[in-house]
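Hi there,

I know you've been waiting on this one. I reran it after we fixed the sequence typo, so this is the corrected version. Both the input and the resulting structure follow.
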Amino acid sequence: MLYLYAKAIHIIFVICWMAGLFYMVRLFIYHTEARQRPEAEYQVLHGQFVVMERKLWWIITTPAMYLTVAAGLVMLYVNPALLHMGWMHVKLVFVLGLVAYHFVCQRMLFNLRAETSTWTSLRLRLWNELATVLLFAIVFVVVLKSALHWIYGVAGLLLLGVMLMVAVRLYKKIRERGSDNSKAS
């Protein structure tokens, strides 16, 4: 019974954590793009983004990460046989990647607040897609659990990554065309 409660908590907080990560990087993109505004407007936006990012990070995203990890550890403690399964090893590698992603985002948070970030909005958009790829990888590993399906899964993840990168680049071109058209009129 403890395992099922831990699993439910794990799933709930994975959703909260991922939502926080996705929205956080979106805020980083808007924060970065605000630099293109006039200085007075940027200072107002910068102050607002700092508040929004701080609250999202410390009230939702980071606690959700810790609760996700804690619930996962409880599940492993209650059912240690999971640690002898190959798919679990692969999942844990992807989870470590997601935790590393989390802490890189935290560094970005500090740099944006201090106005020392060197990331462009395009680079942030591409960075945002890494969380999507990690989420897909974790879900597919947990659901499929077999080596044969892994070959297809890895190929699918690579294809997904390429498609996401192409989509981000196309979106950038469309935005640039739109801003060129609005300047011309």
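Quick highlight: The longest helix spans residues 39-78.

Best,
R. S.
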